[in-house]
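Entry details:
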Amino acid sequence: MLEQPQDVEALDLLDSMRAPQLRSLLMENLSDRFMRQIAFALFQRMRHSVQLLSCINGVTSHEAAMSQLPEVMLAGVSELAPLRGRMLLAIDGDLIGAVVDAMCGATASHPFERYELSALEARIGKQMIDLSLATIQETLSPLAQLNLTPIAYENATGMLAIADGQDWMICVTGIFETALGTGTIKLIAPYAGFEPLEAKVASQSGLLGQRGADAGWAAAIETLAETTPVDICFELARVTVPLAVFEALHPGKILPFALSPEAIAVSGGIDLFHAEYGQNDGYVCCRVKADGPTEGDASMADQKERTTTAGEKNMAPEHERVELERIQPQTRGAPAITGKNVLDRVQVALTVELGRTQITVKDLRQLRHGQVVTLDQMVGEPLTIFANGQKLAYGEVVAVANDRYGVRVTALAEDMDAANEAGA
Protein backbone atom coordinates (compact mmCIF):
# COMPACT_ATOMS: atom_id res chain seq x y z
CA MET A 1 0.00 0.00 0.00
CA LEU A 2 1.19 3.54 -0.77
CA GLU A 3 1.35 5.62 2.38
CA GLN A 4 1.23 8.92 0.53
CA PRO A 5 -0.36 9.83 -2.81
CA GLN A 6 2.13 9.52 -5.62
CA ASP A 7 2.03 10.03 -9.35
CA VAL A 8 1.53 6.54 -10.78
CA GLU A 9 1.54 5.78 -14.46
CA ALA A 10 -1.52 3.86 -15.65
CA LEU A 11 -0.85 0.22 -16.46
CA ASP A 12 -2.00 -0.86 -19.91
CA LEU A 13 -2.44 -4.63 -19.76
CA LEU A 14 -3.04 -4.83 -23.51
CA ASP A 15 0.08 -2.91 -24.50
CA SER A 16 1.99 -6.05 -25.49
CA MET A 17 -0.86 -7.04 -27.83
CA ARG A 18 -0.84 -3.70 -29.65
CA ALA A 19 2.93 -3.72 -30.24
CA PRO A 20 4.52 -6.14 -32.72
CA GLN A 21 6.02 -9.35 -31.49
CA LEU A 22 9.31 -8.66 -29.71
CA ARG A 23 10.91 -11.65 -31.37
CA SER A 24 10.16 -12.80 -34.88
CA LEU A 25 9.76 -16.56 -34.76
CA LEU A 26 10.97 -16.85 -38.32
CA MET A 27 14.17 -14.88 -37.89
CA GLU A 28 14.79 -16.34 -34.42
CA ASN A 29 15.09 -19.79 -35.98
CA LEU A 30 16.86 -18.86 -39.21
CA SER A 31 19.19 -15.95 -38.39
CA ASP A 32 21.77 -17.96 -36.46
CA ARG A 33 21.81 -20.48 -39.29
CA PHE A 34 22.52 -18.03 -42.12
CA MET A 35 25.01 -16.04 -40.02
CA ARG A 36 27.00 -19.23 -39.50
CA GLN A 37 26.77 -19.92 -43.23
CA ILE A 38 28.10 -16.41 -43.89
CA ALA A 39 31.07 -17.10 -41.60
CA PHE A 40 31.80 -20.34 -43.48
CA ALA A 41 31.50 -18.60 -46.88
CA LEU A 42 33.95 -15.87 -45.79
CA PHE A 43 36.38 -18.53 -44.59
CA GLN A 44 36.20 -20.27 -47.97
CA ARG A 45 36.82 -16.99 -49.78
CA MET A 46 39.69 -15.60 -47.68
CA ARG A 47 41.13 -18.86 -46.29
CA HIS A 48 41.42 -17.38 -42.81
CA SER A 49 39.57 -18.18 -39.61
CA VAL A 50 36.14 -16.53 -39.33
CA GLN A 51 33.92 -17.40 -36.38
CA LEU A 52 30.45 -16.25 -35.37
CA LEU A 53 30.63 -15.14 -31.73
CA SER A 54 26.94 -14.33 -31.25
CA CYS A 55 23.73 -13.60 -33.13
CA ILE A 56 21.32 -11.00 -31.71
CA ASN A 57 17.68 -10.77 -32.83
CA GLY A 58 15.16 -8.05 -32.10
CA VAL A 59 12.29 -5.94 -33.40
CA THR A 60 12.80 -2.18 -33.35
CA SER A 61 11.71 0.91 -35.23
CA HIS A 62 13.31 1.86 -38.54
CA GLU A 63 14.76 5.02 -36.99
CA ALA A 64 16.32 3.09 -34.09
CA ALA A 65 17.71 0.42 -36.42
CA MET A 66 19.41 3.04 -38.62
CA SER A 67 20.92 4.78 -35.60
CA GLN A 68 22.59 1.52 -34.54
CA LEU A 69 24.62 1.26 -37.73
CA PRO A 70 28.39 1.88 -37.33
CA GLU A 71 29.86 5.17 -38.57
CA VAL A 72 32.17 3.41 -41.02
CA MET A 73 30.42 0.65 -42.93
CA LEU A 74 29.19 -0.43 -46.33
CA ALA A 75 25.53 -1.34 -46.85
CA GLY A 76 23.71 -3.06 -49.66
CA VAL A 77 19.98 -2.70 -50.40
CA SER A 78 17.96 -5.42 -52.11
CA GLU A 79 14.31 -6.02 -52.91
CA LEU A 80 12.42 -8.70 -50.97
CA ALA A 81 10.26 -9.72 -53.94
CA PRO A 82 7.99 -11.65 -53.97
CA LEU A 83 7.70 -10.48 -50.34
CA ARG A 84 7.00 -6.83 -49.55
CA GLY A 85 9.62 -4.17 -48.90
CA ARG A 86 13.38 -3.92 -49.07
CA MET A 87 16.20 -5.50 -47.06
CA LEU A 88 19.37 -3.77 -45.91
CA LEU A 89 22.61 -5.56 -45.08
CA ALA A 90 25.43 -3.48 -43.54
CA ILE A 91 28.98 -4.70 -42.84
CA ASP A 92 31.13 -2.97 -40.23
CA GLY A 93 34.20 -1.23 -41.66
CA ASP A 94 36.38 -2.98 -39.05
CA LEU A 95 35.29 -6.40 -40.32
CA ILE A 96 35.91 -5.37 -43.94
CA GLY A 97 39.36 -4.08 -43.00
CA ALA A 98 40.26 -7.31 -41.19
CA VAL A 99 39.20 -9.38 -44.21
CA VAL A 100 41.19 -7.17 -46.60
CA ASP A 101 44.27 -7.34 -44.37
CA ALA A 102 44.04 -11.13 -44.25
CA MET A 103 43.68 -11.37 -48.03
CA CYS A 104 46.72 -9.11 -48.48
CA GLY A 105 48.90 -11.31 -46.29
CA ALA A 106 48.92 -9.42 -43.00
CA THR A 107 49.81 -11.55 -39.99
CA ALA A 108 49.14 -9.14 -37.09
CA SER A 109 46.37 -6.67 -36.40
CA HIS A 110 47.09 -2.96 -36.03
CA PRO A 111 44.05 -1.34 -34.41
CA PHE A 112 43.52 2.27 -35.42
CA GLU A 113 40.66 4.75 -35.67
CA ARG A 114 38.93 4.13 -38.99
CA TYR A 115 37.33 7.15 -40.67
CA GLU A 116 36.54 5.82 -44.13
CA LEU A 117 36.96 2.83 -46.43
CA SER A 118 39.70 2.68 -49.01
CA ALA A 119 38.91 1.87 -52.63
CA LEU A 120 40.12 -1.69 -52.15
CA GLU A 121 38.08 -2.10 -48.97
CA ALA A 122 34.96 -0.74 -50.71
CA ARG A 123 35.43 -3.23 -53.58
CA ILE A 124 35.98 -6.19 -51.22
CA GLY A 125 33.08 -4.95 -49.06
CA LYS A 126 30.71 -5.14 -52.04
CA GLN A 127 31.80 -8.71 -52.66
CA MET A 128 31.19 -9.55 -48.99
CA ILE A 129 27.67 -8.05 -49.23
CA ASP A 130 26.92 -10.04 -52.40
CA LEU A 131 28.24 -13.20 -50.73
CA SER A 132 26.19 -12.60 -47.56
CA LEU A 133 22.93 -11.88 -49.42
CA ALA A 134 23.44 -14.97 -51.59
CA THR A 135 23.92 -17.05 -48.43
CA ILE A 136 20.73 -15.64 -46.87
CA GLN A 137 18.85 -16.28 -50.11
CA GLU A 138 20.01 -19.90 -50.11
CA THR A 139 18.99 -20.36 -46.45
CA LEU A 140 15.49 -19.01 -47.12
CA SER A 141 15.06 -20.95 -50.38
CA PRO A 142 13.13 -23.88 -48.76
CA LEU A 143 10.50 -21.34 -47.65
CA ALA A 144 10.48 -18.81 -50.49
CA GLN A 145 12.42 -18.24 -53.69
CA LEU A 146 13.81 -14.74 -53.17
CA ASN A 147 16.07 -12.68 -55.41
CA LEU A 148 18.31 -10.71 -53.06
CA THR A 149 20.59 -9.19 -55.69
CA PRO A 150 21.76 -5.77 -54.42
CA ILE A 151 20.26 -2.80 -56.23
CA ALA A 152 22.38 -0.17 -54.47
CA TYR A 153 25.42 0.24 -52.21
CA GLU A 154 25.90 3.04 -49.73
CA ASN A 155 28.59 3.92 -47.16
CA ALA A 156 26.91 6.95 -45.55
CA THR A 157 24.38 6.17 -42.83
CA GLY A 158 22.53 9.44 -43.45
CA MET A 159 21.66 8.29 -46.97
CA LEU A 160 20.10 5.01 -45.90
CA ALA A 161 16.34 4.52 -45.58
CA ILE A 162 14.20 1.55 -46.58
CA ALA A 163 10.93 2.43 -44.75
CA ASP A 164 9.19 5.09 -42.72
CA GLY A 165 10.95 6.03 -39.48
CA GLN A 166 8.17 4.57 -37.30
CA ASP A 167 7.83 1.26 -39.14
CA TRP A 168 8.85 -1.88 -37.24
CA MET A 169 11.98 -3.64 -38.44
CA ILE A 170 13.44 -7.07 -37.83
CA CYS A 171 17.04 -6.42 -36.83
CA VAL A 172 19.61 -9.24 -36.80
CA THR A 173 23.19 -8.57 -35.73
CA GLY A 174 25.98 -11.10 -36.18
CA ILE A 175 29.26 -10.50 -34.35
CA PHE A 176 32.21 -12.09 -36.17
CA GLU A 177 35.79 -12.69 -35.09
CA THR A 178 38.79 -13.09 -37.38
CA ALA A 179 42.49 -13.49 -36.63
CA LEU A 180 43.00 -9.80 -37.41
CA GLY A 181 39.96 -8.22 -35.72
CA THR A 182 36.24 -8.35 -35.03
CA GLY A 183 33.23 -6.68 -36.60
CA THR A 184 29.51 -6.97 -37.25
CA ILE A 185 27.12 -7.77 -40.06
CA LYS A 186 23.67 -6.28 -39.52
CA LEU A 187 20.53 -7.30 -41.39
CA ILE A 188 17.49 -4.98 -41.31
CA ALA A 189 14.18 -5.95 -42.94
CA PRO A 190 10.56 -4.76 -42.51
CA TYR A 191 8.58 -6.77 -39.97
CA ALA A 192 5.42 -6.62 -42.10
CA GLY A 193 7.31 -7.86 -45.13
CA PHE A 194 7.71 -11.33 -43.62
CA GLU A 195 4.01 -11.85 -42.82
CA PRO A 196 3.31 -13.85 -46.03
CA LEU A 197 6.29 -16.07 -45.29
CA GLU A 198 5.23 -16.63 -41.67
CA ALA A 199 1.67 -17.41 -42.83
CA LYS A 200 3.05 -20.00 -45.21
CA VAL A 201 5.15 -21.60 -42.46
CA ALA A 202 2.18 -21.59 -40.07
CA SER A 203 -0.01 -23.43 -42.60
CA GLN A 204 2.30 -26.42 -42.68
CA SER A 205 4.55 -28.28 -40.29
CA GLY A 206 7.53 -27.01 -42.25
CA LEU A 207 11.02 -25.91 -41.35
CA LEU A 208 10.04 -24.33 -38.04
CA GLY A 209 7.46 -26.99 -37.17
CA GLN A 210 4.95 -24.50 -35.72
CA ARG A 211 2.28 -27.16 -35.85
CA GLY A 212 4.56 -30.05 -35.09
CA ALA A 213 4.72 -31.70 -31.71
CA ASP A 214 6.74 -29.73 -29.18
CA ALA A 215 8.58 -32.40 -27.21
CA GLY A 216 9.83 -29.93 -24.62
CA TRP A 217 6.37 -28.56 -23.97
CA ALA A 218 4.86 -32.04 -23.72
CA ALA A 219 7.59 -33.14 -21.29
CA ALA A 220 7.07 -30.05 -19.11
CA ILE A 221 3.31 -30.62 -18.96
CA GLU A 222 3.85 -34.27 -18.09
CA THR A 223 6.24 -33.29 -15.29
CA LEU A 224 3.71 -30.82 -13.90
CA ALA A 225 0.98 -33.47 -14.02
CA GLU A 226 3.19 -35.86 -12.07
CA THR A 227 4.14 -33.32 -9.37
CA THR A 228 1.09 -31.06 -8.98
CA PRO A 229 -1.06 -32.29 -6.05
CA VAL A 230 -4.85 -32.17 -5.90
CA ASP A 231 -6.62 -32.20 -2.52
CA ILE A 232 -9.75 -34.37 -2.43
CA CYS A 233 -12.17 -34.72 0.46
CA PHE A 234 -14.91 -37.37 0.73
CA GLU A 235 -18.24 -36.17 2.09
CA LEU A 236 -20.85 -38.45 3.67
CA ALA A 237 -23.64 -35.94 4.22
CA ARG A 238 -24.79 -32.46 3.26
CA VAL A 239 -27.68 -30.66 4.88
CA THR A 240 -28.81 -27.16 5.67
CA VAL A 241 -30.11 -26.45 9.16
CA PRO A 242 -31.38 -23.29 10.84
CA LEU A 243 -28.78 -21.30 12.69
CA ALA A 244 -30.70 -21.96 15.89
CA VAL A 245 -29.92 -25.70 15.59
CA PHE A 246 -26.30 -24.86 14.91
CA GLU A 247 -26.06 -22.71 18.03
CA ALA A 248 -27.70 -25.38 20.17
CA LEU A 249 -25.05 -27.91 19.12
CA HIS A 250 -23.33 -29.65 22.01
CA PRO A 251 -21.49 -32.94 22.68
CA GLY A 252 -23.89 -35.88 22.66
CA LYS A 253 -26.35 -34.30 20.24
CA ILE A 254 -27.28 -36.34 17.14
CA LEU A 255 -27.30 -34.30 13.98
CA PRO A 256 -30.69 -34.14 12.21
CA PHE A 257 -29.77 -36.11 9.11
CA ALA A 258 -28.60 -39.56 8.05
CA LEU A 259 -25.32 -40.55 6.42
CA SER A 260 -25.25 -41.54 2.77
CA PRO A 261 -24.26 -45.13 1.87
CA GLU A 262 -21.78 -43.66 -0.63
CA ALA A 263 -19.28 -40.84 -0.36
CA ILE A 264 -18.85 -38.00 -2.82
CA ALA A 265 -15.31 -36.98 -3.77
CA VAL A 266 -15.00 -33.19 -3.80
CA SER A 267 -12.14 -30.95 -4.92
CA GLY A 268 -12.27 -27.19 -5.10
CA GLY A 269 -16.00 -27.23 -4.42
CA ILE A 270 -16.66 -29.51 -7.42
CA ASP A 271 -18.14 -33.01 -7.11
CA LEU A 272 -15.79 -35.40 -8.92
CA PHE A 273 -17.21 -38.91 -8.47
CA HIS A 274 -19.05 -41.25 -6.09
CA ALA A 275 -17.29 -43.93 -4.08
CA GLU A 276 -18.08 -46.83 -1.79
CA TYR A 277 -16.26 -46.65 1.51
CA GLY A 278 -14.62 -49.35 3.61
CA GLN A 279 -11.38 -50.06 5.39
CA ASN A 280 -8.02 -51.53 4.50
CA ASP A 281 -4.97 -52.05 6.72
CA GLY A 282 -6.38 -49.82 9.45
CA TYR A 283 -7.23 -46.88 7.18
CA VAL A 284 -10.51 -45.76 5.65
CA CYS A 285 -10.54 -46.22 1.90
CA CYS A 286 -12.94 -45.56 -0.98
CA ARG A 287 -13.64 -47.51 -4.17
CA VAL A 288 -14.33 -45.31 -7.20
CA LYS A 289 -17.73 -45.76 -8.87
CA ALA A 290 -18.44 -44.77 -12.44
CA ASP A 291 -22.23 -45.21 -12.32
CA GLY A 292 -24.83 -42.65 -11.17
CA PRO A 293 -25.73 -41.81 -7.56
CA THR A 294 -27.64 -44.19 -5.37
CA GLU A 295 -30.81 -43.36 -3.48
CA GLY A 296 -28.82 -41.92 -0.58
CA ASP A 297 -26.71 -39.81 -2.91
CA ALA A 298 -29.86 -38.55 -4.60
CA SER A 299 -31.13 -37.33 -1.26
CA MET A 300 -27.88 -35.42 -0.77
CA ALA A 301 -28.33 -33.84 -4.20
CA ASP A 302 -31.94 -32.99 -3.36
CA GLN A 303 -30.79 -31.30 -0.18
CA LYS A 304 -28.28 -29.25 -2.10
CA GLU A 305 -30.86 -28.37 -4.76
CA ARG A 306 -33.38 -27.30 -2.13
CA THR A 307 -30.73 -25.09 -0.52
CA THR A 308 -29.92 -23.47 -3.86
CA THR A 309 -33.60 -22.98 -4.72
CA ALA A 310 -34.32 -21.41 -1.36
CA GLY A 311 -31.40 -19.07 -1.80
CA GLU A 312 -32.60 -18.07 -5.26
CA LYS A 313 -36.08 -17.34 -3.95
CA ASN A 314 -34.64 -15.02 -1.33
CA MET A 315 -32.72 -13.07 -3.95
CA ALA A 316 -34.58 -10.29 -5.74
CA PRO A 317 -34.14 -10.23 -9.55
CA GLU A 318 -31.62 -7.67 -10.74
CA HIS A 319 -34.14 -5.92 -12.99
CA GLU A 320 -36.83 -5.66 -10.31
CA ARG A 321 -36.77 -2.52 -8.22
CA VAL A 322 -37.85 -3.05 -4.63
CA GLU A 323 -39.54 -0.08 -2.96
CA LEU A 324 -38.70 0.19 0.73
CA GLU A 325 -41.45 1.25 3.08
CA ARG A 326 -40.86 4.26 5.27
CA ILE A 327 -39.97 3.30 8.81
CA GLN A 328 -42.89 4.04 11.11
CA PRO A 329 -42.68 4.51 14.86
CA GLN A 330 -43.36 1.22 16.60
CA THR A 331 -46.68 1.23 18.39
CA ARG A 332 -46.84 0.17 21.97
CA GLY A 333 -47.54 -3.52 22.33
CA ALA A 334 -46.30 -4.48 18.81
CA PRO A 335 -44.20 -7.67 18.64
CA ALA A 336 -40.47 -6.97 18.79
CA ILE A 337 -37.81 -8.61 16.61
CA THR A 338 -36.17 -11.34 18.64
CA GLY A 339 -32.92 -13.20 18.17
CA LYS A 340 -34.78 -16.51 17.92
CA ASN A 341 -36.83 -15.30 14.95
CA VAL A 342 -33.67 -14.33 13.11
CA LEU A 343 -31.82 -17.57 13.96
CA ASP A 344 -34.74 -19.68 12.72
CA ARG A 345 -34.55 -18.06 9.29
CA VAL A 346 -30.79 -18.16 8.71
CA GLN A 347 -29.58 -21.42 7.18
CA VAL A 348 -26.17 -23.04 7.73
CA ALA A 349 -24.72 -25.72 5.46
CA LEU A 350 -23.41 -28.70 7.43
CA THR A 351 -21.23 -31.38 5.87
CA VAL A 352 -19.70 -34.52 7.33
CA GLU A 353 -16.30 -35.50 5.98
CA LEU A 354 -15.13 -39.10 5.90
CA GLY A 355 -11.50 -38.23 5.23
CA ARG A 356 -9.10 -36.66 2.78
CA THR A 357 -6.33 -37.59 0.39
CA GLN A 358 -3.93 -35.91 -1.97
CA ILE A 359 -3.11 -37.30 -5.40
CA THR A 360 -1.33 -35.89 -8.44
CA VAL A 361 -3.09 -34.55 -11.51
CA LYS A 362 -1.77 -37.51 -13.47
CA ASP A 363 -3.22 -40.05 -11.03
CA LEU A 364 -6.54 -38.20 -10.89
CA ARG A 365 -6.74 -38.25 -14.67
CA GLN A 366 -6.11 -42.01 -14.69
CA LEU A 367 -8.71 -42.97 -12.04
CA ARG A 368 -10.99 -45.78 -13.22
CA HIS A 369 -14.06 -47.57 -11.90
CA GLY A 370 -13.19 -49.97 -9.09
CA GLN A 371 -9.89 -48.37 -8.10
CA VAL A 372 -9.31 -48.00 -4.35
CA VAL A 373 -8.15 -44.70 -2.86
CA THR A 374 -6.75 -44.73 0.69
CA LEU A 375 -7.64 -41.73 2.86
CA ASP A 376 -5.73 -40.10 5.71
CA GLN A 377 -8.44 -41.21 8.18
CA MET A 378 -7.69 -44.18 10.43
CA VAL A 379 -10.48 -46.57 11.35
CA GLY A 380 -12.11 -45.51 14.60
CA GLU A 381 -11.11 -41.86 14.40
CA PRO A 382 -13.96 -39.35 14.71
CA LEU A 383 -15.53 -37.84 11.60
CA THR A 384 -15.11 -34.12 10.95
CA ILE A 385 -18.15 -31.85 10.77
CA PHE A 386 -17.99 -28.58 8.84
CA ALA A 387 -20.32 -25.57 8.92
CA ASN A 388 -20.19 -23.35 5.83
CA GLY A 389 -16.76 -24.81 5.03
CA GLN A 390 -15.31 -24.15 8.50
CA LYS A 391 -14.37 -27.00 10.85
CA LEU A 392 -17.04 -27.10 13.54
CA ALA A 393 -16.93 -30.36 15.50
CA TYR A 394 -16.06 -34.05 15.56
CA GLY A 395 -18.53 -36.88 15.68
CA GLU A 396 -19.04 -40.64 15.78
CA VAL A 397 -21.33 -42.87 13.74
CA VAL A 398 -24.46 -44.11 15.52
CA ALA A 399 -27.40 -46.22 14.37
CA VAL A 400 -30.69 -44.43 13.78
CA ALA A 401 -34.12 -45.66 12.68
CA ASN A 402 -34.70 -47.91 9.63
CA ASP A 403 -31.18 -49.36 9.54
CA ARG A 404 -29.66 -46.00 8.79
CA TYR A 405 -26.70 -44.25 10.35
CA GLY A 406 -26.23 -40.78 11.72
CA VAL A 407 -23.58 -38.72 13.47
CA ARG A 408 -23.44 -37.86 17.15
CA VAL A 409 -21.31 -34.89 18.13
CA THR A 410 -18.44 -35.91 20.42
CA ALA A 411 -16.49 -32.64 20.76
CA LEU A 412 -16.22 -29.19 19.35
CA ALA A 413 -13.28 -28.83 16.99
CA GLU A 414 -11.80 -25.91 18.89
CA ASP A 415 -11.73 -27.81 22.20
CA MET A 416 -10.41 -31.06 20.75
CA ASP A 417 -7.70 -29.39 18.66
CA ALA A 418 -6.55 -27.41 21.67
CA ALA A 419 -6.39 -30.59 23.78
CA ASN A 420 -4.38 -32.39 21.08
CA GLU A 421 -1.92 -29.52 20.87
CA ALA A 422 -1.50 -29.49 24.65
CA GLY A 423 -0.92 -33.23 24.70
CA ALA A 424 1.66 -33.00 21.92
